[in-house]
Each structure stands twice: as structure tokens, then as C-alpha cells.
């Protein structure tokens, strides 16, 4: 699926994979996020930190009419306040998508898949 927008110059199609890549990169920049996780981690039973080329596996973009919803599956660092990390990720994702694509997001849902101890 893709999101279609029109402006004075023509029509723009943005694929969900592109949005997932932008969202994944914005998420990794947030303090307290160790990495992105696979959305099927609980079913697979594996704890896997995704590399940059696989961010699409940890981000789900759903289009419901004019409303776009994003689900993020993340791994946070040990000792960080999970609610604060989730709030910062939500804010950063909404800001980044507004700034880069000019689109507003209905909701950003955060699913914490694990906690990792990071080296000091």
C-alpha cells in the first residue's frame, strides 16, 4: 500500500516501506532505545535487534482512510524509564514525519519487546 498526496505540482505516492524506514531511523536516534525488534519476536521466541536494512520488520504502517497508524517494536536500555522513552519516540516520530513528508499521524503505538543491558 502507499499513501497518495496531491499538491500544486502533481501527485505523490509514498510507500509504506519508505515511511517505515524513516520511522525506524528516527526511533533509533532516541535516547534509551537500544534497537528495533521484530514484530514476531514473541511468536518466534528470539530476541533479535534489527539492522538498518531490516527496520521494516519492526515497524507496521496501517492506512485507515485519511488516518495513518504506526506500530513500533523496540528494545530499550536497562535503567531507562520506559514511559519516557516511549513518549520521546512518539514525539520524535510524529515530528520527523511532519517535517520530512508533511503528513500527520493518527497514532504511534509502542511495543517494548525487551530490555537490554548496554555497556557504559
Characterise this structure:
The mean pLDDT is 83. The chain has 120 residues and is of the alpha+beta class. The protein has helices spanning 16-28, 41-44, 82-100; strands at residues 2-7, 10-15, 33-36, 59-64, 67-77, 107-116. The chain contains 3 helices and 6 strands. It is elongated and about 50 Å long. Helix content is 30%, strand content 36%. The strands form 2 sheets. Strands 3, 4, 5 and 6 form a 4-stranded mixed beta sheet that branches. It has a two-stranded antiparallel ribbon with strand order 1-2.
What's this entry about, in short?
With 120 residues, the protein is of the alpha+beta class. The chain is 30% helix and 36% strand.
Question: What gross morphology would you assign?
Answer: elongated
Helix share, percent = 25-40%
The end-to-end distance, rounded to whole angstroms, is 41 Å
Biggest β-sheet: count, sense, barrel?
A: 4 strands, mixed
Order of helices and strands: EEHEHEEHE
Structural class: alpha+beta
Number of helices: 3
Mean pLDDT, all residues: 83
- Determine the oligomeric state from the structure: single chain
Poorly predicted runs are none
The percentage of residues in β strands lies in 35-45%
What's the total count of β strands? 6
Radius of gyration: 15 Å
Amino acid at each position: 500500500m502507499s499513501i497518495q498526496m496531491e499538491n500544486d505540482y502533481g501527485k505523490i505516492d509514498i510507500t509504506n516501506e519508505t515511511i517505515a524506514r524513516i520511522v525506524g531511523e528516527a526511533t533509533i536516534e532516541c535516547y534509551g532505545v537500544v534497537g528495533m525488534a521484530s514484530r514476531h519476536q514473541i511468536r518466534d521466541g528470539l530476541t533479535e535487534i534489527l539492522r538498518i536494512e531490516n527496520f521494516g520488520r519492526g515497524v507496521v504502517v496501517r492506512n485507515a482512510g485519511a488516518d495513518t497508524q504506526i506500530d513500533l517494536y523496540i528494545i530499550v536500555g536497562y535503567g531507562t524509564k520506559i514511559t519516557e522513552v516511549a513518549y520521546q519516540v512518539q514525539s520524535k516520530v510524529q515530528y520527523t514525519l511532519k517535517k520530512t513528508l508533511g503528513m500527520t499521524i493518527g497514532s504511534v503505538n509502542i511495543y517494548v519487546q525487551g530490555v537490554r543491558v548496554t555497556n557504559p
